[in-house]
Write a structure and sequence with these properties.
The complex is a heterodimer.
Chain A lengths: L2 H11 L7 H12 L12 H29 L33 H26 L1
Chain B lengths: L2 H10 L3 H9 L2 H9 L5 H17 L10 H19 L4 H4 L6 H5 L8 H8 L2 H11 L5 H8 L3 H30 L2
Helix pairs in contact in B: 1-2, 3-4, 4-5, 5-10, 8-11, 9-10, 9-11, 10-11
The chains are: A mainly alpha, B mainly alpha.
């Protein structure tokens, strides 16, 4: 121990003080009047396990209830149509007068023939108009 | 189980007598320490009473990994700090006055007690660190635990405190030598 440390220790012991009887009585009386606070017990493992189970079951029950509720609230698909409910479908028939084009010659020849038919039809229409008016 | 551990267990179960036995060895040291932090002897006694009552009440929070004295001093330092915050008289004003309880409790000597010099020149925390180290023989780790400081802080401030007190000590020694040699 160095000189300073020794001197500090000696000087501390030179501080003369002692716990008086009166203080001792006071402390004893105070201690008897109080109870040490109980230590907080650590949670038991089984308790936390049961808590886990309870919370899981509650969660599952809540999920099922929610699914059921949503399903009840959503409007269903409605009555399914049956054959008896079907209105008779009337489709107007259009009668087309068609002639089958018989392509017996090349397309260019057919085109000239059609033009000639058209000219003849025009002349026939003109004659009919002149005759009427 | 050691005797101290048995007393702690009994006190935890509500035995005030076991607690009184437990703290019996520390009361004088605690009072001496608190006296250096108080403006009157009565305040130091009140602080000691509060320390012991709090220790008994909250004994369940004591961790057996610590030394019991470390835990007890932690409570005492908290009480001393609270006491000081409510005091109207500054300790520095008392250090030179005749009402200073520390001065009154120090036996007459030609040389000034180093703890009086320490109280004048060191901060509260450094003072407490020096006391715990050189009077209570606490380890650096225990001191840092009591003061709620890092080990590095404790080491550095113990060294600073030592340096300051060493200068005071050497000054006194030089003065005494000069007087002796005329």
């Amino acid at each position: 121990m160095d000189k300073l440390a020794k001197q500090l220790r000696d000087d501390a012991h030179r501080i003369e003080c002692s716990v008086s009887d009166e203080l001792e009585d006071r402390v004893r009386a105070s201690l008897e009047g109080i109870e040490p606070e109980p230590a907080q017990r650590p949670r038991r493992e089984s308790k936390s396990f049961s808590f886990w189970w309870a919370s899981s079951l509650t969660g599952v029950a809540a999920a099922i209830a929610m699914i059921a509720f949503i399903n009840l609230q959503t409007p269903g698909p409605g009555p399914v149509a049956t054959d008896s409910n079907l209105q008779p479908l009337v489709i107007p028939t259009v009668r087309w007068h068609t002639e089958t084009a018989v392509l017996t010659s090349p397309l260019e020849q057919e085109f000239e023939d059609l033009q000639a038919d058209l000219k003849k039809a025009e002349e026939a229409v003109k004659q009919d108009i002149d005759r009427l008016f | 189980m050691s005797n101290e551990a048995a007393l702690i267990e009994a006190a935890r179960n509500g035995s005030a007598a076991a607690f009184a036995d437990l703290v019996g060895a520390y009361r004088e040291g605690l009072l001496r320490f608190l006296l250096t932090r108080s403006s009157s002897f009565a305040d130091a006694e009140d602080a000691l009473q509060d320390t012991l009552i709090n220790a008994y009440r909250y004994l369940h929070s004591y961790d057996a990994r610590w030394r019991f004295s470390t835990w007890l001093y932690r409570i005492a330092i908290n009480n001393a700090a609270r006491l000081k915050s409510t005091e109207t008289v500054e300790l520095g004003d008392l250090s030179d006055g005749g009402d200073d309880p520390l001065r009154l409790c120090i036996e007459a000597s030609e040389r000034e007690n180093l703890w009086l010099s320490a109280r004048r020149s060191l901060t509260d925390e450094v003072y407490a660190a020096m006391w715990l180290r050189y009077v209570e023989d606490m380890s650096i780790k225990d001191i840092s635990t009591v003061l709620e400081r890092s080990v590095s802080w404790t080491k550095v401030n113990l060294m600073r405190g030592r340096k300051i007190l060493d200068a005071e000590f050497n000054k006194v020694a030089t003065d005494e030598k000069s007087k002796a040699y005329g």
